[in-house]
Amino acid sequence: MSEYHAPVKEMLFVLRHVAGLDAVSRLPGYEDVTPDLVESVLTEAALLATNVIAPTNRIGDAVGTRVEDGQVIVPPEFTSAYREFTGGGWAGLSQNPDFGGQGLPYLVGVAVEEMWQAANLAWSLGPLLTQGAARAIEAHGSEAQRALYLPRMVAGEWSGTMNLTEPQAGSDLAAVRSQAVPDGDRYRITGQKIFITWGDHDMTANVVHLVLARLPDAPPGTRGLSLFLVPKFIPQADGKPGARNSVHVVSVEHKLGIHGSPTCVMAFEGAVGELMGGKNQGLACMFTMMNHARLGVGMEGIAIAERAYQQARAYARERVQGRVPGIEGRAAIIHHGDVRRMLLTMKAQIEAMRGVACIAAASLDHAHRATDPAERARHQARVDLLTPVVKGWCTETGQQLTSVGLQVHGGMGYVEETGAAQHFRDGRITTIYEGTTGIQAADLVGRKILGDGGAALQALVADMTATLPELERAGEPLAVLHSALQEGIESVVAAGRWLAANHARHPGVAGGISWNLLMLLGTVAGGWVMARAALAAQAQLAAGTSDVAFCEAKLLTARFHATQVMPVATAWRRGIEAGCEALLALPEEQF
Amino acid sequence: MSEYHAPVKEMLFVLRHVAGLDAVSRLPGYEDVTPDLVESVLTEAALLATNVIAPTNRIGDAVGTRVEDGQVIVPPEFTSAYREFTGGGWAGLSQNPDFGGQGLPYLVGVAVEEMWQAANLAWSLGPLLTQGAARAIEAHGSEAQRALYLPRMVAGEWSGTMNLTEPQAGSDLAAVRSQAVPDGDRYRITGQKIFITWGDHDMTANVVHLVLARLPDAPPGTRGLSLFLVPKFIPQADGKPGARNSVHVVSVEHKLGIHGSPTCVMAFEGAVGELMGGKNQGLACMFTMMNHARLGVGMEGIAIAERAYQQARAYARERVQGRVPGIEGRAAIIHHGDVRRMLLTMKAQIEAMRGVACIAAASLDHAHRATDPAERARHQARVDLLTPVVKGWCTETGQQLTSVGLQVHGGMGYVEETGAAQHFRDGRITTIYEGTTGIQAADLVGRKILGDGGAALQALVADMTATLPELERAGEPLAVLHSALQEGIESVVAAGRWLAANHARHPGVAGGISWNLLMLLGTVAGGWVMARAALAAQAQLAAGTSDVAFCEAKLLTARFHATQVMPVATAWRRGIEAGCEALLALPEEQF
Fold first, then answer.
1. How many Cα atoms sit within 13 Å of B191 on the Cβ side?
2. Which CATH class for the B159-282 domain?
3. Looking at the DSSP assignment, which residues form a beta bridge with residue A268?
4. In A105-139, which positions are buried (b, 16+ CB within 10 angstroms) versus exposed (e)?
């Protein structure tokens, strides 16, 4: 019912004019990543997303997955789409060429990733986790492990999973109980894991589980967690899948959305596993995968909002209701002021989020490839700071926007056949998995701001502040962007100052204001992105671009963002500065 | 899985100290509505809601409704609950005793209504529409129509519906095409209606449809709509249901939520109907029902948020994750700062919304019963102003809060068996039916503010302003409430001034800012309510109340509201004052 067309032109604009594709292209190994190459990659991916993957979205929702003879069965359409995806080399797009990857920058990778996610969020989780697991193996695996697993996972022949959660251990991984007992040069893993995304399925020849468990002599808490590689089929000497390992799916969850993604309860019953990374180093190893997945889930917030936006926009152009002065006869609802407000709220925030996420991805490229170690460290700090923001803010905003998209449809939005409700249901998971927004906010405030004495935050503030004089020079047309960004930056600075001055007063303070701070930082970073985009659009107009309409629309969208979205930043700042006395004082029984 | 307990103490507090139960009790006919009587009514209703209706909520979601042999079948548990409900005289609680009602004030009626809605939203829609239809018949029906239909509908023996929407006529009723042709002293109605809530079912002996249709000589547009009473079974001379009328259910919609409420496509094929009210007066007649239903749907936003809140609170008290300084061992998540923020966000906004809705209900009582015509008019203007606010703001906020409730559950919230997702799905309809939020916002700005030159808005502003000196006298403990309310009132005044000065500039201006204005007015009215509640709590503490904990919690909740919720009012004001130039200028093809 609803089609999806990847916004290639917009993505290219963001990559080039907001996220600094040119600078990424100057990194060693990326010299041939020209704008033309990127455009052709995005265009080709868009075709696959539109023609092959998007049509499976509704099928996955309606049919879902099931367990049959101890094996998860996914819709056959998913498997066909996956074959075309891996056949085209898309699985390892930004993976290491040494293991069969295409070696493109992360910056290009996230743009393409957004397409798969928008086309079919449930389906896209399989590849997302597989590539995250591959990165963890590349970073922490032994040479033998890398040689055995990486080529197959980078190619997408085998898939990967992340086995962390147990019934008593969700956000709190210190409570993990699964056990690993040495058995020769390997281990036997026993325990139950829940909420395992794509924990089992019939789409690939093997499933490689990364499992957090405890060695017999391990210390308590997170310092006693080790990471194990547990394949569904134990590879033979020739690397082909061999004997069935004793890890099995118990059931799949009946969920609000992403029905096409099997969320599994997994039973490990003395399953054969290999230790990866050092003993008791499991959490650090897992974080390689988790950080990758967090950026990926942040992209999901953007992707599902984009899909919902496209559907709402198409409906608003088609649906005729009421009259609008200046339009003959009854008008399409896209001409009604309040419908325009809803659509522009979606468009502006999607563009702002995409820009921030792409800036994080570009920094990841610099962190990996820059020749200067100081430059690498500077970018790594930016990635660390922005990861919880992209994950938390983009998913919170993205799922709100799916609700706006549904609203544009009126009563039809509430009827499942329309498809708007599926995006609303699917998107709702994104603020939860890979660490809830509360966990992201705690990470932001605790590790990423207080943890380095505010250095990474100050560096971001300095970069944002550097855009102000440019906006000033741009004059009246961008004056509202200038004042909104200036006020936004002041709010970020004030909030950081308040946190530094007050967090030690009470152990609950940081947690009490962390969500506000995360949303504030995301919103203001979004305003910065929109300002940079507006500056680029203005420059192109001045240079006589042939795409006047696109650049003028960019300016109007940035204006809308500055006047209608940015004022809320001040509200969050004030919430922070008011402290959280009331919140901490309310007795449990009075809730 | 999730229980519901009506917050009787809180409701009584709001009725007495925010909404002015005493003043309502002084109205003619309500002299015996003492606080004790109200408490016993609420307590009894709470028992029915908890023990009889709430247990059907999940059943309705899982089983849904179906069409069998041209008849809608609802879960049998719904019918049993309905029998207890009507048997106890609850159907006509605030209806006219002349027709069998209990004659209690609206103010008591809405509090009790919230309980049925929270207990089972889908189920509660049946009684809501029936009583709305009864009010329309009482206001516009002939003596014979009232005598025939009212006693049965007030008792809940027969149910009522509202047949407005057609495929091409949703928000735009001017496009209604259904025809009514005279046939003796009656009419034959032909047409198709969609989205008819409880359009057919097996819970009552008859279903009375109020149908908008056009007479052969009717003018085009809404001025050519007439209202017809079309019973499923044509009453015999003795009033018993007789011959089957030719109105039939075609299908029920497959919806995101409220699965237990049959949303019907209805076919009228020369169905026998009676004209109600004058020819071409249909819209005015229907508005009697619609305004009643709009207040009711506003209550639904509050009710579903309350239900979601109770479930999230229970989970947060039970679920143990992580550690919190000052608590031994692993802590229940209610002790984590961000979880407290989520719960208090729900609690504070629910209390604010309930207060505003109850103020509207009390005004409805004064509008109907006050002896002084000027007093009646003054209160009617308040009801008219607040109806779109209660409908729009309470449902927008309520559905956001169901999302917060789901979030408190983490991954468990996304699993359907937990029940949190049902509230999220159920609540999502409330911003759509009985007029979308966009329609409410247009009504507020067009009819209710510009329509009377801002008089009703100014009267509300004056009443809110009168609370400021009281807050000032209350001193430091309420200082943050004073400044928040003062700033909020200034925002409302400024927004009203901007609207008056700018709406004529461009026909799209009012629509472009209307949603912001609706949310602004709701939020500030909520701040006013919380301030009044805090003043009452402070007074009770000073007077040596025995319920110190409750009153202190009220003060903390009001503080949280003033510091964490109210700042957004300024953001909305600034959005309005920035105008909607960008929104109106963006070409359709650039969305």
1. 26
2. mainly beta
3. A191, A247
4. bbbbbbbbbbbbbbbbbbbbbbbbbbbbbbbbbbb
Antiparallel, parallel or unpaired: β B158-163 and B206-213: parallel
Per-residue model confidence (pLDDT) at position A288: 85
Confidence check: pLDDT of B1 > 80: no
Q: Rounded to an integer, what distance in angstroms lies between the CA atom of residue B585 and that of residue B567? A: 29
DSSP H helices in A503-589:
509-542, 548-560, 567-577, 581-585
- Cβ partners under 8 Å of residue B297, min gap 6: B128, B391, B395, B430, B433, B434
B221 contacts in A (CB within 8 Å)? Answer: none
pLDDT for A590 equals 96
> Above 70 in pLDDT, residue A1?
no
Interface predicted TM-score (ipTM) of this complex, two decimals: 0.97
> How many beta-carbon pairs under 8 angstroms link A with B?
274
User: pLDDT above 70 covers what percent of chain B?
Assistant: 100
From A3, A7, A51, select the one nearest A346 (Cα to Cα).
A7
For B353, half-sphere exposure in the C-beta direction (CA atoms, 13 angstrom radius) is 33
Distance CA B503, CA B578 (A): 13
> Which residues in chain A are contacts of B582 at CB distance < 8 A?
344, 556-557, 559-560, 563
CATH of domain B8-153: 1.10.540.10
In the prediction, which pLDDT does A180 show? 98
C-beta separation of B299 from B350 below 8 A: no
Instruction: Return the CATH architecture of domain A158-280.
Output: Beta Barrel (2.40)
Interchain proximity B438–A578, CB inside 8 Å: no
Q: For residues A405 and B298, what is the distance between their CA atoms, to the nearest angstrom?
A: 21
User: Domains of chain A: which residue ranges?
Assistant: 8-153, 158-280, 436-586
- Specify the residue for token string 């992105």: A529
| Chain A residue closest in CA terms to B588 | A334
Which candidate, A410, A416, A359, places its Cα nearest to that of A382?
A359
Q: Tell me whether the CATH fold assigned to A8-153 matches the one assigned to A158-280.
A: no
Query: Touching check for A318 and chain B: CB below 8 Å?
Result: no
Q: Residues 140-169, chain B: which have Cβ within 8 Å of A? A: 165, 168
**DSSP per position, B531-559:** HHHHHHHHHHHHTT-S-HHHHHHHHHHHH
Provide the 3-class DSSP secondary structure of residue B4.
coil
**pLDDT above 60: residue B371:** yes
